[in-house]
């Protein structure tokens, strides 16, 4: 595909962008902004984004994307509950931390399990129900997103690495499926993911210092 073809698809895709897609992108960017700041509004704002994208994806026969956003919806409720928990001193129970060695293995197994399951499902469903699916690419984007969302609910710094992988995969994936505005959206999310990673590293270091200081 040459540059002129890419530009042509871009122009056509932008003209096909619906108001719902614009709204979903707006709330999605706002959600990532709140997650970077460790603000619990990430979840109610994000729910608007994910519910809209479930509808858009099902309407466009993008079952992989629909499953991702349905999962986001469920995990947003789970994360909202976790982030809201406080101890008797009214301090948040879940704090930003790094994962340990054994936890990294869990992350990789979590990712691998979802990748295989989604890939097999899309290969099976592609012919009759998911014509727009690209099984290997959809499975990668979905499973990295599933892992990132799970770790974000637990406030793990590593969640941002998975988000970066998701965004890198989703930029071309949505473009070739003619969701050009959503493809641009993932470019913005990619930049914000690097920004969020930097901020959570800073906060994790601060939490570690405060924890050490509280135990003389």
Notes on the protein architecture:
The protein is mostly helical. It has one domain. The protein has eight helices and no strands. The protein has helices at 3-16, 19-36, 42-59, 63-84, 101-125, 135-153, 159-176, 180-213. The chain is globular.
Architecture blueprint of SSEs:
Layout: H1 3-16, H2 19-36, H3 42-59, H4 63-84, H5 101-125, H6 135-153, H7 159-176, H8 180-213
The portion of residues forming beta strands comes to: under 5%
Number of helices: 8
Helix content: over 70%
Number of strands: 0
Major beta-sheet overview: none
Structural class: mainly alpha
Mean pLDDT over all positions = 86
Poorly predicted sequence stretches spanning 5 or more consecutive residues: none
Label the overall shape: globular
Q: State Rg.
A: 18 Å
Give the SSE string: HHHHHHHH
Give the end-to-end Cα distance, rounded to a whole number of Å: 62 Å
What is the compact description of this entry?
This protein is mainly α and 216 residues long. It has eight helices and no strands.
Descriptive labels:
single chain; 216 residues; mainly alpha
């Amino acid at each position: 595909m040459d540059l002129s073809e890419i530009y042509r698809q871009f122009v056509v895709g932008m003209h096909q962008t619906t108001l719902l897609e614009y709204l979903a992108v707006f709330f999605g960017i706002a959600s990532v902004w709140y997650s970077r700041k460790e603000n619990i509004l990430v979840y109610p704002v994000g729910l608007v984004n994910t519910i809209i994208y479930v509808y858009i994806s099902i309407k466009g026969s993008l079952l992989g994307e629909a499953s991702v956003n349905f999962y986001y919806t469920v995990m947003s409720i789970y994360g909202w509950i976790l982030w809201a928990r406080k101890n008797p001193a009214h301090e948040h129970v879940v704090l930003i931390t790094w994962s340990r060695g054994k936890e990294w293995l869990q992350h990789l197994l979590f990712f691998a399990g979802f990748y295989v399951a989604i890939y097999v499902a899309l290969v099976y469903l592609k012919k009759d129900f998911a014509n727009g699916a690209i099984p290997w690419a959809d499975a990668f984007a979905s499973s990295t997103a599933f892992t990132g969302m799970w770790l974000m609910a637990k406030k793990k710094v590593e969640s941002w690495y998975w988000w970066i992988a998701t965004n890198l995969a989703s930029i071309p994936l949505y473009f070739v499926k003619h969701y050009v505005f959503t493809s641009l959206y993932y470019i913005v999310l990619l930049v914000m993911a690097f920004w969020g990673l930097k901020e959570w590293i800073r906060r994790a270091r601060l939490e570690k210092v405060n924890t050490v200081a509280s135990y003389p």
